[in-house]
Amino acid sequence: MSLMVLGTASHVGKSTVVAGICRALKNRGIGNAPFKSQNMSLNSWVTADGAEIGIAQAVQARAAGVEPTAEMNPVLLKPKGEMVSQVVLLGRPYKDVRIGEYYRETDELLETAVRAFTHLEEEHGTVVVEGAGGAAELNLYDRDIANIRLARALGLPILLVADIERGGVFAQAYGTIALLPEDIRPLVVGIIVNKFRGDPTLFASGVDALQEICGVPVLGVLPYTGIDLPSEDSLSIGDKSARSEGVRIAVVRLPHIANFTDFELLERRAAVTYVRPGDPLAGYDCVVIPGTKNTIDDLRLLRSSGAADEICRARAAGVPVIGICGGFQMLGRRLVDLGYEGDGPAEAEGLGLLDVTTTFSAYTKTTRQVHHRAVDVPPFLSRMGEVSGYEIHMGTTERGADGPAFGDDGAVSEDGLVIGTYLHGLFSDPDAVDALLGSLADRRGIEYRPAEDDGDPYDRLASLFEAHLDMGLVTALACGGEREGYLYEGRDQP
């Protein structure tokens, strides 16, 4: 038996709840794996065999103690704008589709998802399934392969996550359950109240009220946690706030920003600000251009907004500039799309800060995990040593006079202040972060102290769940067993 975690809305914490349950089950000796049939996100991860999946499922796999695989996220949608998304099917680029065309393939995609789930359950025994967005989207019921149609196909017990921080938790939970189809409603066996701030005992009467109006037990009230896990999608970027002290880093907030999880460790150790294109860059110690799903479109926006001039002025003033993936491509002299990266053939002049040229000549994507040694070029790369990360990009980049930055990857200017790389996850490495921030602090004449290791975040998350969630019942549901007389067989709602 497995179980399903649905939410009352987007961003209520489903991904974190699944990660916490995965690690708690693992710590109880129960093998398990995560699963999300359909994910829409520009934050992705590359598995050991080169498959691309949503980063949330990679995080959950790490929590479960298993290797991420394509079956954990069989359908990944990567928005490209104008109601068009790239469909990544079982880890490989499938095609770019408009939303209407995508919906016509719902039946086939659901079959693919169910096969992937079945494979995971056969391999791992227990699967913790995450839904997408809100479960009670009435207009989507006929094509909702992440929630309703999947729940109908699998028949698993459902835990419903509601977010008390945003308010209206009673309406969230009651409204969602009341609006579920009649055959799905009885599968809801528990409610999890998430993101509670303060003393949870003060919500005891609220728990009673929720159980009374919903006819479903509340399995726990999870406190708001500062445990840092990678963000699933762009909804999280609005929650970010910069520290007020230390090294100041500007990350350009591109319209189609991808894999901004690259900078979340930097955010915890430096004052990182996501700067909108056109906002001034004066006063920052470093400027970062992140990855993007639409490189040429976002490059044009940098020019039209004045951001390109701001970046070049920062470089001229001696401020280091780092480009990751699409940001690396933008740092070059020229980008040539033969009709595969955007809507059609296009060319664009790059920022000209590195002597490289990028060409998009096929509908193929480089997806691989990599390990390199940083080149011995001061002031930053010479401090980094061995680094690891993963590549997810279309296009090929040819270097001119500038040499590589990491092994055979990327490029670096002669003075070492402009660095481009395809390595996502570079700054998820504490040593690479300390090398960059230590060097930037030295340049500014301030002190930088590397952060101490605060332990495994997944074990801390699991401990939180053990303390605030009825993990005995969750375990019984996940394993199809019985606890204190409760046996899940499906039931009618009172």
TrEMBL record:
Taxonomy of origin reads:
Archaea, Methanobacteriati, Methanobacteriota, Stenosarchaea group, Methanomicrobia
Q: Which InterPro entries match?
A: Class_I_gatase-like (IPR029062), CobQ/CobB/MinD/ParA_Nub-bd_dom (IPR002586), CobQ_GATase1 (IPR033949), CobQ_N (IPR047045), CobQ_synth (IPR004459), GATase_3 (IPR011698), P-loop_NTPase (IPR027417)
Domain spans labelled CobB/CobQ-like glutamine amidotransferase: 248-430
Keywords per UniProt: Cobalamin biosynthesis, Glutamine amidotransferase
The record's comment on protein family reads: Belongs to the CobB/CobQ family. CobQ subfamily.
Look up and give the organism this protein is from.
Methanofollis formosanus
Q: Name one GO biological process term.
A: cobalamin biosynthetic process
Q: Which SUPFAM superfamilies match?
A: Class I glutamine amidotransferase-like, P-loop containing nucleoside triphosphate hydrolases
The segment(s) forming the CobQ/CobB/MinD/ParA nucleotide binding domain are 3-225
Q: Which Pfam families does the record match to this protein?
A: CbiA, GATase_3
The biological pathway it contributes to is: Cofactor biosynthesis; adenosylcobalamin biosynthesis
Active site feature: 325 (nucleophile), 424
Q: Does the keyword Heme feature in the UniProt annotation?
A: no
Q: Indicate what this protein is called per its UniProt record.
A: Probable cobyric acid synthase
Reply yes or no: does the keyword Transcription regulation apply: no
